[in-house]
Amino acid sequence: MLDTRRLRLRRLGAADEALFVALDGDPEVMRYIGSRGGTREEIVARVRDRIAADHGALGWWVIEGRDDGAFHGVAALLRMPEGEDIELAYRLARASWGAGLATEAASALARYAFDQVGLPRLVAVTFPENIASRHVLEKVGFVHDGMSDYKTFQVTHFTFEVSEWRKRRAEAGDADRRGRGRGRRAPR
């Protein structure tokens, strides 16, 4: 389980099937997802395959509210269809859009990938017109490095190196240390 200020990410389980099917059945949510569409039966089969798959330290995660357990969406660390790269992916229910939850969840998953799994880098892909997702990736620390083929789509490709992750963490730690004590009045 991964906790953030507002979220809890936990591994996907059989009890999550109905929520995941509803998410993947929403055409607006799936608009920029490569594995979209199909009949309800096809969506159910795809979700069941994802629940049953064993990806070891990688795989699918449910994004839920830390305090209320509300379902916000899913995220994943998965091997790219070609090559050895590991992709960070996410999608949120429409009711959860625009609140910074994708950035919070993606940051938590990147931290897990680098600090606990020990990955040297992550990749992510988005449809070129998915500006919101591009902004999420850039806030997390991913760098746009061109276009690539993904399944049957032409997508924007991003990378995030562990060295950049460590640098960002060190800078954040320095900023936290510099900020301590500000705003406090000295005792008289």
Tally of separate helices: 5
State the share of residues found in helices, binned by percent.
25-40%
Radius of gyration: 18 Å
Arithmetic mean pLDDT:
88
Query: Roughly how many Å apart are the termini?
Result: 45 Å
Instruction: Indicate the low-confidence ranges by residue numbers.
Output: 184-188
Instruction: Give the total of beta strands.
Output: 8
Hey, roughly how much beta strand do the residues contain? Answer: 25-35%
Biggest sheet character: 5 strands, antiparallel
Inertia-based shape: globular
By helix and strand content, what is the structural category? alpha+beta
**SSE sequence, one letter per element:** EEHHEEEHEHEEH
The strand order across the widest sheet is 1-2-3-4-5
Task: Outline the structure in words.
The protein has 188 residues and is α+β, with helices and mostly antiparallel strands. The chain has helices spanning 17-24, 40-52, 101-117, 131-140, 162-179, and strands at 2-3, 7-11, 59-65, 71-79, 86-92, 121-126, 143-150, 153-161. Helix 3 (101-117) crosses helix 4.
Short description:
With about 190 residues, the chain is an alpha+beta fold. Helices cover about 35% and strands about 30% of the residues.
What are the salient characteristics of this protein?
single chain; 188 residues; five-stranded antiparallel beta sheet; three-stranded antiparallel beta sheet; 8 strands; 35% helix; globular; disordered C terminus
